[in-house]
Amino acid sequence: MAVYVLKKGDLEKFLLFLGKQGELIAPVKKDEVRFEPLKDPTDLYLDEQTYIPAKQYFFPQEQVLFTFQDDMIIPVVAPIKKRIFFGLRRCDLAAIQHQDIAFGEHNDPHYKKLRKSTILIGYQCTKKLHHWCFCGSMDLPDFYDLMFFEQEHHYQIDVGSAQGETLLKKSKLCRKTVVRISKEQKIVPDTNLLQRKDLGKHYSSKAWDSLVKKCISCAACTTLCPTCYCHEIKDDVPVSLKEVQRKRTWSSCQLKEFSGVAGNYTFRESRSSRFKHRIFHQLQYFREKHGVDLCVGCGRCIKHCPPRIDFIKVINKL
Amino acid sequence: MKQLLSKADPYRPFKIEILERRQEVKDTFTLKLDVPLKHDPGQFVQLSIPGIGECPISISSYSSSFLELTIHEIGMVTNTLSKLKKGDTIFVRGPYGKGYPMKETKGKNLVLIGGGCGVAPLKGVVSYLDKHRHDYGTIDLFFGYRSPEHILFKDEMPTWKELYKLNVSVDKAPTGGCYTGNVGFITQLLEKSQLSPQRNAAMLCGPPVMMKFCIDILQKKGFHEDQIYISAERLMYCAFGECCHCMIKGKFTCLDGPVFRYDQIKEDLNEEH
Fold it and tell me: Which structural domain range is residue B115 located in?
C-alpha cells in the first residue's frame, strides 16, 4: 500500500483534523498513561506504554446487553459515534485483531457494535517501551488503517486500508512518497525475548513451580492484558426496580470464583493451576483453535505484576 | 420442534411458560416447559430469571412436545427457580453442547451410570431409548443416591425395571426404615455386575469422584477409554464458547462437551488441578 509523509510540525494540526472527523482517542498521561479522548493535541503522550490498554473501548469492563422490562427483552439502542484511535502500538493493534477473532467467532453483536465505525491509527515503537516488551517474538501482523513511523523530521505513514488513505487525503497535510516501509522498521529491537514452543507437553513441568508460588492472585495481569476477554454475565436491578439489566463484565481466571460451581466446588483450586491456565490460554489453547497466539507480547502482565513473575524465563527453560 | 437460539444476539433468551412443577425429592424438582425443543440427550439449556441470573441445566426429557429440566436446589438461581409454579414464565436459550453419542452407539449394549442429580441427563437418554429401544442391545442402568429419600424418578422405575436392567443403590439408609433396596456405593453393584466390554458403551454422569471410581471398575472389566463417555460440569455463562469459564485446558465444556469421550479428556481432567 501507499506511504505518505507528514512533517513533524504538522502533527498537532493533523490531530485537530482527526478530532473533527470523530471522537479522537489517544494516549494521555493522567494518574497513569491511558487511552482517553484527546481534547488538546498537546496532551498526546507517546513516551510510555499505556498502563491501561484500549480494550475497554470495545469490550467494556461492564456492558449492558439488554434489559428486561415487564418480562419483555429490550435491546440496548445507543447511537454509534465514529471513533478514531491514535497512538496504538503494534501490540495494541494486534490485541484488537485477536479480540476480533474471539468475539467475531460468535458474531457477538455487543462487541461488533462498539468495534465498527472505528479507525485505528498506529504508532510504531522505535525502541522498546519497557524491559519486558516481547512483541518481537510474536510475529505481529500489519493490522491498522494507518501506521506512523517516526523519522527525524517527519513521519512516514503506512496506509493499511482505503478508509485510512481517504482520511490522509482529506487532511491535506500529507504528501505521497515513493519510499516504502522496510521490514526492519516494523521490528522493535531487543524484543525477541520469548522462545515460542508447543507448551502442550509442558503443563506438568516442575519448572513452573518456583515461579507460580509467587502469584498472589491479584488479577492485575488479566485486568491490564489487552487481549484477556474472559467475562461473566450477571443481572443488575436498579433501585427503581423497574427494569433488570443483563450485563457482561470482565472476569479473571486468576480468581477462585472463576471456576467455582454451585455447591461450593472449585475446579481450578490451586493458584498454580490458575496462573498456568492464563499462560496456556494466551500461548497455547488460543493458537490450537485459531492458529494464532492470543498474547501479543506487550509485557504488561509482567511489568505490572506485583511479585513480577517473569514467565518468559520459565518458558524459555522448558 | 424448534431451537431457542437467537441469531441477532446469542445471549438473548426466550420467554417460556412453566406447564408443571413437580417436587422429585426434598431438594430436587422438575420443571416441565411448554417448548418442543430439538435437542440430543445430554445437551443443556441456559435457564434464567431476570434479576437473579442464569445457569446451565441439563435436559432430563426427550419429547417432541415438551421440555423437562430436573433441578437440584443448590445455588442462587436454582433456589429461586424452585419457588416458581405452574403458569409462571422463565427465560430459556439453547440447546447447547454435545450430548451423548446415541448415533455412534447404535446397535451396542449400553451401560448408564448416574449419581444423584447426575441421573437427570441420563433420564433424557433413557427417554430416548424408550423411543428407539430396538436400535440397541441390552441396557444396564446403575443409579446411586445418597439415601432413600434422595432417590429420583421413583414413578419411572417400574417401567425401567421392565425394559432395562435397573440397579439402584443408596449410600446410606436409616436403620429401621422401610427401604428394602441396595445399600452401599453404586460402585459395589457395578463391580458385582456381569458386564462385558464387548459391543458395549458406558455413559456416566455424577460427582467427579463417583465417576472416577466407576471408570476404574469399568476399566478393570475390560472397557477401553474410548467406550466410556462422561458428562462434565463447569461454571459457564455464555454456553457458546465465548466467556471461557468452562475451559478444561483448551477444551470448552459448553462446545466440545459437556459429554466427552473419556480418552479425549482424561489427561486434561487429571492434569488441571
Answer: 109-231
Q: What is the pLDDT of residues A135-180, one digit of tens each?
A: 999 999 999 999 999 999 999 999 999 999 999 999 999 999 999 9
Query: Do residue B144 and residue B218 come from a single domain?
Result: yes
Query: Are the beta carbons of A303 and A216 closer than 8 angstroms?
Result: no
Domain termination residue (choose one: B96, B130, B147): B96
Output the domain CATH number for residue B44: 2.40.30.10
Encode pLDDT of A236-293 as tens digits.
Answer: 998 888 899 999 999 999 998 898 888 788 888 888 889 999 999 999 999 999 999 9
> Considering only residues 34 to 93 of chain B, which have any Cβ-Cβ distance to chain A shorter than 8 Å?
48, 50-55, 74-76, 78, 89
Domain count, chain B: 2
- β-pairing, A175-177 vs A3-7, is antiparallel
Question: CA-to-CA distance for A261 and A248, rounded, in angstroms?
Answer: 19
Q: What is the largest CA-CA distance in chain B?
A: 59
Residue of B235, B256, B268, B271 best to disrupt the A interface, most CBs of A under 10 A: B235
User: Which helix (H) or strand (E) element contains residue B192?
Assistant: helix B186-192
ipTM surpasses cut 0.95:
no
| B87 and B113 part of one domain | no
Q: At what angle do helices A11-21 and A162-171 cross, to 10 degrees?
A: 120
Q: Are residues B82 and B59 part of one domain?
A: yes
Task: Judge if B181 and B158 occupy the same domain.
Answer: yes
CB contact under 8 A, A233 and B233: no
- Are the beta carbons of B55 and A262 separated by less than 8 Å? yes
Closest Cα in chain A, distance from residue B242 (Å): 7
Examine the domain organization and report whether B113 and B210 are in the same domain: yes
